[in-house]
Amino acid sequence: MVAQGTEGKTMKLGDRIRQLREGSGLTQGQLAHGSAVSQGYLSQLENGEVKNPSAAVLLRVAEAMHVDADELFEAAGYPTVRTLRRLYQGYESTVDDELLQYLAGLSREKQRRLLSLLEGIEKLIAVEAAATETFITPQTAQDGSNVQAETEFSKVGN
Fold first, then answer.
1. DSSP structure string for 51-68
2. CA atoms of 149 and 152, how far apart (whole Å)
3. Three-state DSSP class for 8?
4. How far apart are CA 37 and CA 134, in angstroms?
5. Of 81, 71, 86, whose CA–CA distance to 1 is shortest?
6. SS3 124
7. Buried b / exposed e across 24-36, counting CB within 10 Å, b at 16+?
8. Model confidence pLDDT, tens digit, residues 18-48
9. Alpha carbon of 115 to those of 87, 103, 108, 118: distances in Å?
């Protein structure tokens, strides 16, 4: 149960609660009253004696101190949107948003058919690209002839 402190060091949940409470100018009694937990329980939280505090308690404590609840959730080891964004920052979709919206409007069957068509087109393009590559043999390199040019010319002539 650790969080990033103000100096960039890891900080235990209890230490973080105490730091935020003192920064808010509240006594333990005031914070306990404002968050509807007993002062004894709050003391246990600050001393690290509570191993798995509920999210509801942490939310009430954060609200009573007027701080972002993520401060306490992260210190307690709960995943937050903020931490998930940091973790998955590099995994954002590279697919065009308009394409995703278009595909989302299609039935699964139409999506599968479209995928099949696109894969077929991709194969045709690859085959055509392989057929039009320049193949230079020692013979054609010597006399300057170009197999690709001849292939392209024969396509146009037909």
1. SS--HHHHHHHHHHHTS-
2. 5
3. coil
4. 79
5. 71
6. helix
7. eebebeebbebbe
8. 999 999 999 999 999 999 999 999 999 999 9
9. 31, 10, 10, 5
Q: Which amino acid would we find at residue 7?
A: E
Q: Using one digit for the tens of pLDDT, what is the confidence trace for 67-117?
A: 999 999 999 988 888 888 888 877 767 788 899 899 999 999 999 999 999
* Bridging pattern class, strands 10-12 and 2-4: antiparallel
Structure letter (DSSP) for residue 2: E
Please give the full DSSP string across 13-45, using - where no structure is assigned. Answer: HHHHHHHHHHHTT--HHHHHHHHTS-HHHHHHH
Neighbour count for residue 119 (Cβ, 10 Å): 10
Please give the single-letter amino acid code of residue 103: L
